[in-house]
UniProtKB/TrEMBL annotation:
The lineage of its organism: Eukaryota, Viridiplantae, Streptophyta, Embryophyta, Tracheophyta. GO terms for biological process: anaphase-promoting complex-dependent catabolic process; cell division; metaphase/anaphase transition of mitotic cell cycle; protein ubiquitination. InterPro entries: TPR-like_helical_dom_sf (IPR011990), TPR_2 (IPR013105), TPR_rpt (IPR019734). This is Cdc23 domain-containing protein. Its main location: nucleus. Keywords: Cell cycle, Cell division, Mitosis, Nucleus, Repeat, TPR repeat.
């Protein structure tokens, strides 16, 4: 009964029938209460978006897998202290956690979210040292601005490490086989005295040990079956005692971000939060499957055929031993879920054959000969496939190297370099939603909104279900004043996932473009409610408050965004703009410089930093900053105009006039350009040209403030002529 329920629970999880899995697993644990079955129940709760339930049932459990699942539940509920205590040894916090790359990554996430940047970086780097194909760790390092070159993290030197983790070597295979040979005769020929559950549990333990050795940590997706006595092993950690909330009966804070989901929607729609946190594991599993699954399956099938033919002439003990050897081999070359299903199927065949031929027993020598033949087949298969697998690993690392270098350049805002790297990808990889979204973001940072729109539109065509970076796309359309296109994008995103923060950012930009700032602000706040760590939603809220001239709340939003992501330069820029408007130039300079240090290739940031320096009467520094901005983006007219003003201030009138003549050709309908040219002609005592340009400036309908300045300049221009006539 236990084996049957476990099999159906795993099958329900594989088929995403989460509610059915929860119900059956609750029946399983009620009938067979054990910590291993409790782990399976916790997996069902986590897959069904019930982290609270997993938290309560796993609290105080001592197995490593139980503590790992408990930490996952704590992270879903933002209980970082308890998650950290579950993942770290209690007695010595400096000791290495023996649970592989996944635990190191989770610790990095915990330290990142609790403002311990250095420790976070350390654990993300440990993750890559354990598993070089752990892309999510490298992604986090890029976001923190601390990633090494992709050639180091995904270089050829990492190929043996990947091969060791996911393939193993021939000596380890033989060592495992020799260890099993040393078992006594009572274990070898005592299969008829084992109950159904005992055999299943012993085979499950072999799977658990091999999978943990190969993958460096426990797996959430596999069928992990542990024996009750194995909790005494040194790889398991004791219950974290220092955490008061773990010992108390006080309920943890409610999971606010999940209360909007109805039960019917939970059972059908996957959890976006869990999907984001475990994306690295899914990607690694897909890569491992494409590299190793086929060869491993062929080896297992070949051996299975061999020992089934031998079973027709051998006794029941030989059948059991062949079954055990085949089970061990398949557990080395496939995932734990696949192995569990194959074990159960093969077990049924073995038990039925054992019942029919239980009277006939073979000698120990025959069993050994069969086992040696299986081992030789295993070794030859390993050697023949190792070259192909190594080539596959090299190609995968080459792909990750290119992707990593492009992503690192983009996170450092070296957008042109990132675009050049992405151009090296094959057409199959380049024409994917993720790559095209990164290309669109690169053009957005370069203020090339037309190319950004084109790249994002291609990404939408290829993967309309993908909402990553679509908040940036909505901002691109906002800057292009594409009202109808922005509305259509918002509607499409609502149909895909109305609970995604990116969707509400697009809705907010749509309202903001229509000058409905109250509705826009509500939309951005809704995005914050859905994901409080979505920094861009906080920044967009700050922008709306600034438009509404509520600077106090705008500062709060920008500061919250920086608390989530200290490298979010848009928030530093927003704070600088607020202080510039309030004429607090020293504060404005500080915040613009912070933004400039993060993104030193933004002409917009350079322009406003130069404007602040000009207000502080530091004209030479301001002129230098404007020249840098012009070099970065020669199409941006603002730095050129400011440079002309600074040259006028410094008395370099002819140089300023040359720049203004160039600007007049590019932007012929800007009144400020003609007004400044009139001022230069006035200083050169060319009053006729000065009057002409002042008149053109007035005809272009400038603002009321500029009209007053131009009229005052004209009056000062006329006074000397009247005085000459009176004389």
């Amino acid at each position: 009964m236990e084996a049957l329920l476990v099999n159906y629970v795993e099958k329900s999880l594989e088929q995403y029938m989460r509610r059915n899995a929860v119900f059956l697993c609750e029946r399983l644990y009620a009938e067979f209460p054990s910590e291993v079955n409790l782990q399976l129940l916790a997996r069902c709760y986590l897959n069904n978006n019930q982290p609270h339930s997993a938290y309560y049932i796993l609290k105080g459990m001592q197995m490593a897998q139980s503590r790992f699942l408990f930490a996952i539940a704590c992270l879903e509920m933002d209980l970082f202290c308890e998650a950290e205590a579950a993942l770290l040894p209690v007695k010595d916090l400096c000791a290495e956690v023996p649970n592989g790359a996944a635990v190191q990554y989770l610790l990095g996430i915990i330290y990142r979210d609790t403002d311990r940047k250095n420790k976070s970086i350390e654990h993300f780097r440990k993750t890559l040292s354990i598993d070089p194909m752990f892309w999510a760790a490298y992604e986090q390092l890029c976001m923190l601005g601390e990633a090494e070159e992709a050639a180091i993290c995904f270089g050829d030197a990492t190929v043996p490490c990947v091969q060791e983790h996911y393939l193993g070597n021939a000596s380890s295979c033989l060592q495992i086989a020799d260890t099993d040979h040393s078992s006594d005769s009572s274990q070898r020929f005592g299969l008829e005295y084992l109950s159904r559950s005992d055999l299943k549990q012993r085979e499950g333990n072999n799977i658990r040990v091999m999978c943990e050795n190969n993958h460096g940590g426990p797996s959430l997706t596999g069928a992990v079956r542990q024996s009750k006595n194995s909790c005494c092993s040194t790889s398991f950690l004791s219950t974290p005692s220092p955490v008061p909330t773990q010992l108390s009966d006080v309920a943890p804070p409610p999971l606010v971000r999940n209360i909007h989901l109805r039960q019917s929607e939970d059972s059908l729609r996957p959890n976006t939060q869990a999907r984001g946190k475990f994306a690295c594991d899914n990607e690694s599993a897909q890569i491992r499957g494409s590299l190793f699954f086929d060869s491993g399956l062929r080896r297992s099938a070949r051996l299975a055929v061999g020992h089934r033919s031998l079973n027709t002439s051998q006794g029941s003990e030989n059948k059991a031993k062949s079954l055990h050897a085949s089970t061990k081999l398949s557990s080395e070359t496939c995932s734990s879920t696949f192995c569990q299903g194959k074990l159960m199927e093969t077990y049924e065949v073995a038990v039925s054959e054992f019942g029919a031929t239980s009277s006939s027993l073979s000698s120990t020598a025959d069993v050994k000969s069969i086992q040696h033949e299986i081992e030789n087949t295993k070794l030859s298969s390993f050697i023949s496939d190792s070259a192909t697998i190594k080539s596959g690993i090299s190609n995968t690392m080459k792909l990750l190297r290119t992707l990593g270098e492009g992503y690192r350049h983009l996170c450092m805002f070296r957008c042109k370099e990132a675009l050049n790297v992405y151009q090296k990808l094959s057409s199959k990889q380049y024409n994917t939603g993720w790559i095209l979204s990164q290309v669109g973001k690169a053009y957005f940072e370069l203020v090339d909104y037309l190319n950004a729109d084109y790249a994002f539109s291609l990404a939408r065509q290829i993967s309309p279900y993908n909402l990553e970076e679509m908040d940036v796309y909505s901002t691109v359309l906002y800057h292009l004043k594409q009202d109808m296109k922005l509305k259509y994008l918002a509607q499409e995103m609502i149909l895909v996932d109305r609970f995604a923060p990116q969707t509400w950012c697009a809705i907010g930009n749509c309202y903001s473009l229509q000058k409905d700032h109250e509705s826009a602000l509500k939309s951005f706040q809704r995005a914050v409610q859905l994901n409080s760590r979505f920094a861009y939603a906080h920044t967009l809220s700050g922008h709306e408050y600034v438009i509404m001239e509520d600077y106090g709340k705008g500062v709060e939003c920008y500061q919250t965004s920086l608390h989530v992501d200290a490298r979010h330069y848009n928030s530093w820029y927003g704070l600088g703009m607020i202080y510039l408007c309030q004429e607090k130039f020293e504060f404005a300079e500080h915040h613009f410089r912070q933004a400039y240090q993060i993104n030193p290739l933004s002409s917009v940031i350079m322009y406003y930093l130069g404007t602040t320096l000009e207000a502080l009467k530091r004209s030479e520094e301001a002129l230098e900053m404007m020249e840098k901005a012009i070099v970065i983006d020669n199409k941006n007219p603002l730095p050129k105009y400011s440079k002309a003003k600074l040259l006028v201030t410094l008395g370099k009138l002819n140089e300023a006039l040359e720049i203004l003549e160039e600007l007049k050709e590019c932007t012929p309908r800007e009144s400020c350009i003609y007004a400044l040219m009139g001022e230069i002609y006035k200083r050169n005592k060319k009053y006729d040209k000065a009057m002409l340009h002042f008149g053109i400036a007035l005809d272009l309908k400038p603002s009321i403030v500029d009209v007053a300045k131009i009229e005052a300049a004209i009056e000062k221009l006329i006074i000397p002529d009247e005085m000459e006539e009176s004389l």
